[in-house]
């Protein structure tokens, strides 16, 4: 026997009509959610590009310098005449190649250095330069007791060009000469590099190095300046601290390129511990009077005098 379905009472719509209405509202909600999600992703993308530019991983804005030369001056220990020669030499070189100079005063970092040797001042000086020039790409720290002797050769041509750096990188060699068991990686390429340095016959050179702006640079400098390292009784303070970090932290070693000493760190004939073929020759970009400020038998001002005169004479010829 079949029973008739009793009719619904009142004007209420049938169940299928209600389901269609709910589906319509659901689709509108999903569409709105999708649009909002896409908008948020677009905002996050734009912000990431902005912060990337600020970190120095993209091209520097027009009108800004891609290279900053960092020089730490001890104004209390040397005559104004001597310091002005150093400054003039740096200013001439920077002007020729569109670079920027950052002259730091050692006394400005005394409160950060504390009881540690004052040679540690190079680390906060470079960090200060990076904070002051966030759009620059490279920071070249050069010891004050040094001169640019080949003014027409740019750092790009000498070192920073991708293919040039590739040809200069010393692979699978001891980080600390002559026989450190930790060696530079053999697989690295120029695009992997954020820190460029040299070594002499005994140590990594802290008086002449290049670091690239970015997250690694900030991490590296903060690690290097850690109070634990500054309080440790390293015989050569920041130099031995750097050697420790590079040898025992593969993250740093994987970003390091060692290049021949004379590329950016030629020693004067009176300097000790030069590497094989590490002493200055005519045509080199830089001459450095290594340890002239720590050897009581030497005078930085006297050693620099003849080379400064030669440089000044060269400018007049040109």
UniProtKB/TrEMBL annotation:
Keywords: Glycosyltransferase, Membrane, Transferase, Transmembrane, Transmembrane helix. The chain crosses the membrane at residues 32-51. InterPro entries: Glyco_trans_34, Nucleotide-diphossugar_trans. One of its GO terms (biological process) is protein N-linked glycosylation. GO terms for cellular component: mannan polymerase complex. The keyword Transmembrane helix applies. It comes from the Eukaryota. GO terms for molecular function: alpha-1,6-mannosyltransferase activity. Pfam families: Glyco_transf_34. Belongs to the glycosyltransferase 34 family. This is Alpha-1,6-mannosyltransferase subunit. It comes from Aspergillus mulundensis.
């Amino acid at each position: 026997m079949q029973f008739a379905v009793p009719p619904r009472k009142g004007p209420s719509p049938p169940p299928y009509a209600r389901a269609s209405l709910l589906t319509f509202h659901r689709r509108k909600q999903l569409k709105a959610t999708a649009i909002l999600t896409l908008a948020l992703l677009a905002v996050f993308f734009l912000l990431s590009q902005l912060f990337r530019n600020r970190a120095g991983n993209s091209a520097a804005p027009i009108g800004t310098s891609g290279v900053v030369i960092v020089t730490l001056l001890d104004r209390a220990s040397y005559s104004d005449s001597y310091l002005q020669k150093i400054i003039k030499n740096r200013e001439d070189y920077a002007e020729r190649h569109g670079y920027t100079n950052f002259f730091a005063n050692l006394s400005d970092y005394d409160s950060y250095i504390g009881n540690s040797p004052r040679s540690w001042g190079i680390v906060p000086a470079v960090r200060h330069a990076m904070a002051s020039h966030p759009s620059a790409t490279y920071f070249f720290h050069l010891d004050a007791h040094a001169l640019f002797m080949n003014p027409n050769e740019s750092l790009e041509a000498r070192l920073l060009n991708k293919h040039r750096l590739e040809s200069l990188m010393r692979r699978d060699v001891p980080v600390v000469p002559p026989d450190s068991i930790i060696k530079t990686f053999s697989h690295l390429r120029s695009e992997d590099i954020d820190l460029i340095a040299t070594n002499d016959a005994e140590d990594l050179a802290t008086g002449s190095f290049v670091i690239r702006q970015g997250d690694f640079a900030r991490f590296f400098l903060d690690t290097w300046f850690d109070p634990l390292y500054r309080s440790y009784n390293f015989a050569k303070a920041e130099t031995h601290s750097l050697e420790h970090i590079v040898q025992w932290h593969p993250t740093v070693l994987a970003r390091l390129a060692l290049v021949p000493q004379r590329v950016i760190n030629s020693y004067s004939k009176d300097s000790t511990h030069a590497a094989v073929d590490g002493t200055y020759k005519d045509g080199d970009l830089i001459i450095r009077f290594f340890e002239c400020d720590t050897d009581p038998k030497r005078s930085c001002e006297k050693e620099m005098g003849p080379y400064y005169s030669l440089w000044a004479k060269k400018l007049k010829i040109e």
